[in-house]
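Cont'd.
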Amino acid sequence: MLQFLVRRFVGLLFVVLGVTFITFILGYLAPSDPIKEMMGAHFDSQTWLQLRHFYGFDLPWYEQYLHFLARLARFDLGTSFNPQQRAVWDILKDGVPISVELALWGTVVTLLLGIPIGIWSALKANTWVDTLLMSSALGLYALPAFVLIVFVQLLVLWLNYAGISWPVTGWGTAWQYSWSDIQYKLAPVLTYAAAGYGYYARLTRTTLLEVMRQDYIRTARAKGLQEWVVVSRHALRNAVIPLITVLGLVVGLLVTGSFFIETVFGIPGVARITVNSVFLRNYPVIQATTMLIAIGVVLGNLLADVLYCLVDPRIRVE
Amino acid sequence: MQPKKRLRLVSLLSISCILILFLTACAGESTQSTQKNLVAAPADKQILRFPLEGEDFSTLDPALTTEGLGDPFNLIYTGLVSIKGDGTITDQLAASHAVSADGLTYTFTLRPNLTFSDGTPLTARDVAYSINRTLLPATQSNVRVYLSLLKDFDKVTSGAIPTAIGDSLIVKDDRTISITLSKRAVYFLGALSYATSFVVEKKLIDQYGNKWTDHLDEGGGAGLFKVQSYNHTKGLVLVPNPRYYGSQPKIQQIQYIIAGDRDSNYKAFLAGQYDLAAVPPSQDEVAAKKPGYHEVPALTLRFIGMNYLAKPLDNIKIRQALALAINKDLIVSRIIGKFVIPSNHIVPKGIVGYNENLTGPNGVKGTAGDPALAKQLFQQGLQEGGYSSVSQLPSISLTYAIDYKAAADTILAIANEWKQVLGISVKLIGLHGNDVTKQEAETVGKSGPLQMWYDGWAADYPDPQDWLTLFFGKGSDHNIFNYGQNNSAAATQQQAVQAEMAQADGEQDSAKRVQLYRDAEQKIVNDVGWITTYQSAAVFLLNPKVQNWVTNPMGVIATDDWAKVYIAQ
């Protein structure tokens, strides 16, 4: 196992290097000039030249990239253009915990809703319960997040009209759970969950139905085991492997996966900063968040591999 | 509050502060929200909550901000002069000022006993330090151009001389500072009212370096309000600064809250979460029936730029034909909305020197265009240019920002009008906003890459120079049109207009100065320096309980007018 982990972490280094290089080259070749963007209409050539020098844009591409790597080795991710002159590291320190909090709670609620509903639907396959549950799951899954958010916000607005004071936007304090904080967080978390639960419900149902047709399930039933034991101990454990695969990918996108929700609800997480940075050609932030996604995806897959072993002892990481 | 900022959606995204956005847009004429004699709510209810659209402030450092005309900058910090409620410039930290006979030296005497919000005395040395700090290369200010009138500006900003203190900034004693300019410029006080000249506390900057604005709760400014807290994920909270030299405000707290997008903030306003919200275009009709609805003209113009170095746009008659083929009234009513104003002006309504009697090209009155005259001028232009027919014309392209839908719609409609009236097909090129900005900078002194482009401009300070000399002056980085420095038959006359504008910039006699600018504006309009489409406006909802909300023509509440704002019961 240790050898496996070491191998994966070494691989992670190469993935990060590759991602940073591709992001750097794309940014370098892009026609836009971030300094001109930052200066806006206050353009004057002397200031432009000085700012280009300050941010290292007057160097050849390979020197720029080597400087980036040298800074990276010192855990310095550079300086943002907008917000101006702010260390990228500081921006991530502020934004990542909030994005992780949103995505984590959203994923927990997604799983708490999606898996039981998927199981129930599988157990009631081809009945009206199944049809009802899967139709609603499909409906929510098909609904784009930005449409769902509008519905949720209108609902909150109606609550206010009905005399129940409830915030429409904002996030409260990260990782704090006073009543006020919960009020802020509930709508975004439920929106996140509603958008994703349909996928997990349908995936759980499909895989569980597949497993329930296997001989060993028939054998378990023939042995006279209770149905919930058959499902929880024999069926679900095998059905959960595809879910782990998907979860591994989701973990990788925990930080930047909720752009719409962060933007519309006014949540100061890193997903919104990332997309805004693309518009503003804020390359230091784009580099950092791309790297973050790459690390997340690799670690998420690593986590999935480890979980496979725990769930199914037949799988060996070696 | 977005001075010198070309107006595109990308900017809107990058520009995070909805309040700033809407206040900028509120400009043009003073606007007032007051119901007289309403009783003020108790002190603990005197709280204003403003949403910051999308994200944190780009910066709270006045030396770096492109949004430094109004709040929160003019609340936390203050400078030698400021813009009053009526749009004129007044002494602020200065008790008085005097201008030397040659118009090159401004001497300011500070009010007595000034202090920063933490109690540290504020002297002329702090004023000099703050202005000099903006100029120094180490500050990396992207807006230091506001101070470009200072003597040896280039030398200080390039590092050729280490400081402007003792050179263009002379501290005579604790209360007296003189500032020397490189040329006579009456608009200097306007430029000085911008945030780049606001006084900052050296002690805080020395202690925390470029993170000093994260510690504004410890001091840093000398404004009407001081910072109670600033958090990059929550926002900014201001409370009255008890050490402010003027009247104390009735408002006891101003919260700038990091919020969602415009639609969400509008809903949050309706839910009572905020006291102010910009109205999304889709909600305009509904919002218009609500109390607190404001529809205000802005000191912002939209225009089609045309490069005099690009053929056939070097022909004045062809330019005039293009201008007169556009029915601006129709475009505004059908595409933009009735609340903006179709215009022929370069200096917008609300700026001193606005010319009510200005006519369009060739003396045409009104903004509906003149298709018959346009056709006639176009034919004359073709002959003058040696083109036997429309098909012989070099291809013309018009570049616009695709991120701003109204611009794209406007341009499409205008291209159709040109096709119908003149039979000319203009190639439309949609680019991202910042790519258009990049191409604009590259077009100065060249025949490309831009031939025609669609753009906008918001006032920096209430002076015609900010619209005329800045855009059409000789040697200006903003003269993308290459007005005056081109090969057209009108180039000599245009150079005379440039000289006229330069004269107006330094003219101390206000009436004469206005007359010079008006004359220059009319000549530029006749030569179709640019084609103005309309003067913008903004619509927003303000909590009807907020009283004495009076903005100046720049669209911001003057520093001292903030003291009068209160929330009624």
